[in-house]
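Hi support team,

I submitted a single chain yesterday and got back a structure, but I'm not sure I'm reading the token output correctly. Could someone confirm the output below corresponds to the sequence I sent? I've pasted both exactly as they appear in my results page.

Thanks,
R.
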Amino acid sequence: MNDIELLALLRTDPERGLAQTVSRYSAFVYKIASARLRYVCTREDIEEAVSDTFYIFFTNGQNNGFIIRSVRAILSVIAKRHCINVFHRHSRQPKTVNLYAHEIQSAEAAASAAVAAMLDSSLSSGAEAK
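Hi R., thanks for writing in. Yes, this is the structure output for that exact sequence:
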């Protein structure tokens, strides 16, 4: 199925047309998204960006009657622009903080104090024995 047939299907039966578009171009869009987001996003975030790309394509296409010259070209542009937005969103987010970090540090400090106390007591009992 070429782009002309795919666009005709999108106009007449949008759901089947979208399914055909996704099956035909999902690897292409995933490659674009992965290349741009692999160092800042998880695999799930990349897959979500791919899904968002097809959603944006479909909603914009429905609003414009799918008057498009090339499905591949428009998907490429949408994917690149959307991935730039996702990249900026993820880059601006503050790093996650472990909510239990203070408890871990407190436990480590308590353990260190206990070990130090045990060593002091064993050294002092050893000195008294001599």
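A quick pointer for reading it: DSSP finds five helices and no strands in the chain. Let us know if anything else looks off.

Best,
Support desk
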